[in-house]
Amino acid sequence: MKSWLIATAAVILITTSAFAWGEKGHYLANEAATFGVPNDMPLFFYKAYPELIYLAYDPDRWRGAGESLDAVNPPDHFLDYEYVAELNLPPDRYKFIALLSSSRTLRRYGIGNTMTGFLPWKIAEMTQLLQNEFRQWRFAPVGSREREFIERDIIHIAGVLGHFAADASNPHHATINFNGWILPNPNHYPYDCETHERFETRFVSHAIVLDDVTSHLSPPALRTDYFKTAVEFIRGSNALVEKLYQMDRDGAFDVFRPVSPQARAFTGERIAAGASLLRDLWWSAWRNSANRPPRRSEPPPD
Questions:
Q1: d(CA 2, CA 111)
Q2: Is the dihedral of CA 37, 238, 25, 257 positive or negative?
Q3: Dihedral of alpha carbons 222, 76, 126, 209, sign
Q4: Could you tell me which of 230, 153, 169 has the C-alpha nearest to residue 29?
Q5: How far is CA 89 from the centre of its chain?
Q6: Contact 59, 77 (CB under 8 A)
Q7: Fewest CB within 10 A of the end CB: N or C in the chain?
C-alpha cells in the first residue's frame, strides 16, 4: 500500500516536480556563480557573464516544445533520492535504467523508469561535455573562426549547466516529497500541492536578493569525478527535506507574513550551494581540460 501511495502521488505531481527555483532563483544562482570564479580561466568566459546568467532559465523555457522533448526534459531536473538510496549508482544513465529493473526497484515502488529522475547524470554529462569543449578550444588556432565557434558552444553549455546545478540544491528536487508530504505524517507537514511553488518561486521572488546568496558562497574546489560530486550534493539536499517542511509548516515561506530571517538564510544558503557547485564545475572543466583524456574502452571482439 505504501509503495502504491508513493507511486500514485508521483504520477499526480510529476510535472510540478520537474522545474525548480522559478526564474528569479535560477538567475540568482548563475549570477552568484560568477562571483569568486578563479582568475585563470579564458578571458572570453568572463566577458560572457551576462549570457551565462540569461541561460540559467533555458531548460524551463523548453517546456511545451513537443512530445519527444517534453518526455526527456523533466526527469533531468530531479532525483527522488529515496527510490535509489540503497543502490550503487553507475555513472552511465543507461546502466542505471537497467539497474532499476534488475534491482526490482521499479516493481517495488510501482514506478516507471523515468520517475526516479536523472539529475546527477545530467550534471555529469554536461560537465564532461564542457570539459571536452574547453579541450578543443585549447587546440584551436588563436584568433580562428574555429575558436570563436567553440567559445559559443562553451558559453551555452556552461549557462544551461547552471540550471541543473541549481535544481540539485533545492531539497524539493531530491525527494519523493517534492510537492507535499506523501509519507506518514505525524509531524503535520504540508501536503498541499503548493508547497513547491510557495518555497522556490513565491518566497524567492518576494524575499531573496543577490546579497542573500553571495554571502553564503563556499571557497572554490577543484572537482574531478563529476558524477560522484553530483550524487553527494543531491544526497545533501535530500538531508534537508524535513527541515524545509518544518519551516513551511510553521509559515516561514508565507509571503503575507513578515519575512522570516530563518527562511531567508535557509533559502540563500541553498541557492548559494547550487551557485558554488556551478562555479566549481565551470572551473574544474577548464582546469581538467588540460589533462590527457581517458582512453576509450576497446570494442568487444567480433
A1: 13
A2: negative
A3: negative
A4: 169
A5: 17
A6: yes
A7: C
Question: What are the b/e assignments for 70-88, b being 16+ CB within 10 Å?
Answer: eeebbbbbbbbbbbbeeee
Q: What is the pLDDT along the chain (302 residues), one digit of tens a residue?
A: 334 444 444 443 443 444 567 899 999 999 999 998 999 999 999 999 999 999 999 999 999 999 999 999 999 999 999 999 999 999 999 999 999 999 999 999 999 999 999 999 999 999 999 999 999 999 999 999 999 999 999 999 999 999 999 999 999 999 999 999 999 999 999 999 999 999 999 999 999 999 999 999 999 999 999 999 999 999 999 999 999 999 999 999 999 999 999 999 999 999 999 999 999 999 999 999 999 887 776 554 44
Provide CB contacts within 8 A for 45, sequence distance 6+. Answer: 37, 154, 155, 158, 282, 286
The amino acid that residue 93 corresponds to is: R
Residue linked to cell 580562428 = 144
What is the model's pTM? Answer: 0.91
Strands (E), 62-215: none
Q: How far is CA 18 from CA 92, 175, 233, 264, in A?
A: 21, 12, 18, 23
C-alpha cell at 101: 529493473
Closest-CA residue to 207 (of 250, 166, 259): 259
What secondary structure does DSSP assign to 112-135, as a single string? Answer: -TTTT--HHHHHHHHHHHHHHHHH
Please give the single-letter amino acid code of residue 157: I
Strand partners, 178: 180
Q: Which residue has the cell 568566459?
A: 45
Buried b (16+ CB within 10 A) or exposed e, 148-178: eebbebbbbbbbbbbbbbbbbbbbbbbbbbb
